[in-house]
Amino acid sequence: MAIYTKDKPITRGDITGDGAWWCLGCGDFGVNSAVQDVIMSLVNEGAFPLENIFALSGIGCSSKEPEMLKVNAYQGQHGRSLPVAIGVAIANPGLKVIDFGGDGDTYAIGMEHFMHSIIRNVNVTLIIMNNQVYGLTKGQASPTAHTGLRTPSTPDGKRGRNINPLRLAIAAGAAFVARGVSWQRKELAEIITQAVNTNGFSLVDVFSPCVTWHREPGARGSGPIFEWYRQNYVMDISTAWQSMRDQVFTDDERASLPSEYDPQSSEAALSALRLISEAGKLGREVTGILLHDESQPSMAENVGVSPDHAPVHLDISMDANLEQYRGLLAELR
Ligand SMILES: Cc1ncc(C[n+]2csc(CCOP(=O)(O)OP(=O)(O)O)c2C)c(N)n1
Ligand code: SF4
Ligand SMILES: [Mg+2]
């Protein structure tokens, strides 16, 4: 791979892959641009080696993301990229590991990997392009589809609740939990930058509208569906913090609340869970950085590996380890 320096900075063209998969207007283009902004800034301003950025994905429209980039990458099976990401992160803790997925990919078939990756606090950034549908397979309702959403698999409207991945991630103890929106590229890039620089599991769930299959009544095409999200669905955490404090907090609690929401405060996780829940009663989904807590050891720390002591760099050849291997065999006899 080429070497980039301050005099020869990396350009967008250098990290743009050959993929050309998404429908015109798909939200995933916005996520892709934000990710490229983050990579360029890591390499050009942070002097992070491009070859140490590793992208993974499963299967879905969103999982085409590694093909839209030109970085070291692995595309696996539907819902199964996280176990591979764990292996990569532990084998070489010097990498920045970014796993891309869809709401079907990760919150349905991949749910157990999602929960256990968080519980293990593996140092991976998971970016989900959440569009409430299975885009690639023609728009069936996904676990994040809101109640009442009409799709080919729910023609009379989805019955029952949608899952809220932010609540799950907070409850399971993720180090970083945020939700971005694909139409605010600068803000999304800032969120992703914080996520990739966090030591521990980071979830960035991004509302990334599917302009082909997600059809709210009267909202067809890219403009109207983005507008539907803005006007009817999302609520920024700072707005929720101001407008719902009377509903969420008691008089005593309100007396000591800071004026701004602080994702690094010791109460952040509990406040976020309560705010998400109240917003849900209004049919709204909270966005922004909800939790940033690096106090727990990462999986790498727990198993005793680090960039300087990376399994990938160990000499495991027979010659160098003959005595150890003989000892192991003797134990098994
Ligand atoms: C094991 C397995 N089950 C099912 C499928 C079929 N399949 C491919 S993509 C997909 C859903 C994609 O939805 P999502 O993860 O939300 O991604 P999107 O296309 O919406 O970005 C499904 C069910 C598959 N490829 N492999
Ligand atoms: S089907 Fe939906 S999610 Fe897939 S590329 Fe088209 S707009 Fe994007
Ligand atoms: Mg989807």
Describe the protein's topology.
Blueprint lengths: L27 H17 L8 E5 L7 H4 L3 E4 L5 H11 L4 E7 H7 L1 H10 L4 E6 L2 E2 L5 E2 L23 H8 L3 E6 L3 H12 L5 E6 L14 H12 E3 H7 L1 H4 L2 H5 L12 H14 L3 E8 L6 H5 L18 H11 L1
Helix pairs in contact: 1-7, 4-5, 6-12
Major β-sheet strand ordering: 2-1-3-4-8-7-10-9
Strand tally, please? 10
**Rg value:** 21 Å
Distance between the termini: 47 Å
Helix content: 25-40%
| Proportion in β-strands | 5-15%
Going by CATH, the homologous superfamily would be Thiamin diphosphate (ThDP)-binding fold, Pyr/PP domains
Mean pLDDT comes to 95
- Helices, by number, come to 14
Globally, the shape reads globular
- Class by alpha and beta content: alpha/beta
Ligand species = thiamine diphosphate, iron/sulfur cluster, magnesium ion
Low-confidence stretches: none
Biggest β-sheet description = 8 strands, mixed
What is the CATH topology descriptor?
Rossmann fold
Total count of domains: 1
What is the N-to-C order of secondary-structure elements (H for helix, E for strand)?
A: HEHEHEHHEEEHEHEHEHHHHEHH
Task: Report what the structure shows.
- This protein has a single domain, classed as Rossmann fold (3-Layer(aba) Sandwich).
- Helices cover 38% and strands 15% of the residues.
- The protein has 14 helices and 10 strands.
- It has helices at residues 28-44, 65-68, 81-91, 103-109, 111-120, 165-172, 185-196, 222-233, 237-243, 245-248, 251-255, 268-281, 299-303, 322-332, and strands at 53-57, 72-75, 96-102, 125-130, 133-134, 140-141, 176-181, 202-207, 234-236, 285-292.
- An 8-stranded mixed sheet has the order 2-1-3-4-8-7-10-9, with helices on both faces.
- The structure holds thiamine diphosphate, iron/sulfur cluster (SF4) and magnesium ion.
